[in-house]
Amino acid sequence: MGSVLRYLVSGWVQRLSDTPLFPYGTLSVNVVGCLAIGLLGGWADNTELFSPGVRLFVLLGLLGGFTTYSTFGYETMALLRDRQTLAALGYVGLHLVLGFGAVALGYGLSTLRG
Fold first, then answer.
1. What pLDDT score does 53 carry?
2. Residue range 6-41, pLDDT digits in tens
C-alpha cells in the first residue's frame, strides 16, 4: 500500500512541478514520509496510541513502503533519543557513503560489456 501511494504522490507532485530537471516528487514523498513517521512515531513512543502490531504495520510497513527514507530518519532519531550520538552519526554517514558508493558501483558495472 505504501509503495502504491509513493508512486501516486510522487508522480502527482512531479507533474505539478512542470519540470523534469529536478526530482520534486521523490523529495516531497521523502519529506512527507519523514514528517508522518516523526509525528506518529512520537505519539507511539509517548502514548498508547498503537498496539505493538499496529505500530509495526503503520511505521515500518505502510510508511516504510511509502519511503524507506522515513524509516532511516526515525531510526536515526531513535538513536539520538537514546543518547547514541556516535551511533547515529555513523548510521547517517554509512548510509550516505555506502548508499552512494553502491549506486556508483552498480552504475559502473552496468556499463561493462561482457
1. 92
2. 999 999 999 998 877 878 888 899 899 889 988 988
Residue 94 lies in a domain: no
Q: What is the reported pTM?
A: 0.72
The CB-side HSE value for 105 (13 A sphere, CA atoms) comes to 6
Residue linked to cell 512527507: 32
Task: Provide the domain limits for residue 30.
Answer: 2-67
Count: domains in the chain: 1
In b/e form, how buried is each residue of 47-57, taking b as 16+ CB within 10 angstroms? eeebeeeebee
Instruction: Tell me whether residue 74 is in a domain.
Output: no
Is 22 domain-assigned?
A: yes
The C-alpha atoms of residue 59 and residue 40 are separated, in whole angstroms, by: 8
